Amino acid sequence: MNSAFRFEDEKVLIGLAIIPLLLVLYLITRRYQKRQLLKWGDQLLLNRLMPDFSSTRTFVKLVIWILAFGIMVLALARPQFGTKLSEVKRKGIEMIIALDVSNSMMAEDIQPNRLENAKMAIGRLVDRLENDKIGLIVFAGDAYIQMPVTTDYMAAKLFLNSINTQIVPKQGTAIGSAIHLAMRSFTPNSDKSRAIVMITDGENHEEGAIEAAKEAGDAGIIIHTIGIGSAQGVPIPVTSASGQKDYRTDYEGKVIISKLNEDLLRQIAAAGGGTYVRATASRTGLTTILDEMNKMEKQEIQMKVYSEYDEQFVYYAGFAFFLLFIDFILNSRKNKWLQSLQIFGKRNM
């Protein structure tokens, strides 16, 4: 039987970050205490004055307490095992985001640059999805499927993080090719509730983008476009071999200025029956596009989910309390009987 593990409340896991701080605090405190004790005499004298003190036991108690704390944090995050994989039908839409990864998307008229700004916006869009399917296509001189349509939103974010301008070797902006690839990438036999979202600066280097958008519109696929960049244009930064910042130049040595082609993107959106939105520094426009897509008729989408999850926190909490009990009965001072067994060694300080 298939199974899956998850934490119901993953935010609680941030409490694990306290553990390194506790270790640092312990080391600082031990050093301070040792310095204070040495003011009263040398090490041999201190050993005679405190024959029952065991620094090893103190450290062991600290380790036990930290383990108990870490396991209790895991328990509070509510670990669960899914034990039943089932198919459920929910209503949603299918969308494919086609993201321009050409060199011009590195322009910094929208911070930190056009591409990174678009990736952050797509990440926020994924967080808002519930029952919809999403796919990713990247394009420059060619178009490639980065991720097929899926309801696995965590996978979508992983694929999104790996996108950069080197992912497509051929440079250019083949918008028409990206539209045709997106049309072929939807779930077979799905004839409604399909949308393509183009995120690009619109610097198209091939013909046929508007014609491809009309084909998509005739097939019932809505195309929305988001223009990212500025109309006046900016140079495209590039890092030289010496590590210094420079700007891309053409064959004549002139600095290339990348401009937003709003006219083309408006025409593509109109041909595809969708909406054009211009991205700004404060908003990318995906929220507006998502609101438009939510008005579409929803179709039934089959999803595989783990429908039954068994709570496991009681086992974690029980083990944490067991460790605390061990810590309670373990004295910081040496036990004469255990000392004869030399479990904790012969070191006194």
Quick synopsis:
With 349 residues, the protein is an alpha/beta fold. The chain has helices spanning 18-38, 43-49, 55-76, 114-128, 153-161, 175-184, 209-218, 262-271, 286-293, 313-329, 336-341; strands spanning 4-7, 79-92, 94-100, 133-139, 143-150, 194-200, 221-227, 234-235, 237-239, 245-247, 257-258, 276-278, 299-311. The chain is 39% helix and 23% strand.
Description:
This protein is of the alpha/beta class. It is built from eleven helices and 13 strands. It has two domains: 4-82 and 309-341, no CATH class; 94-297, Rossmann fold. The strands form four sheets. A six-stranded mixed β-sheet has the order 5-4-3-6-7-12, with helices on both faces. The radius of gyration is 30 Å and the shape is flat.
Can you say what the CATH homologous superfamily of the largest domain is?
Answer: von Willebrand factor, type A domain
Strand content range: 15-25%
Element string (H = helix, E = strand): EHHHEEHEEHHEHEEEEEHEHEHH
Number of strands: 13
The CATH architecture of the largest domain can be given as 3-Layer(aba) Sandwich
The average pLDDT is 83
The biggest sheet amounts to: 6 strands, mixed
Principal-axes shape call? flat
Enter the CATH topology name of the largest domain: Rossmann fold
The helix fraction, in percent, is 25-40%
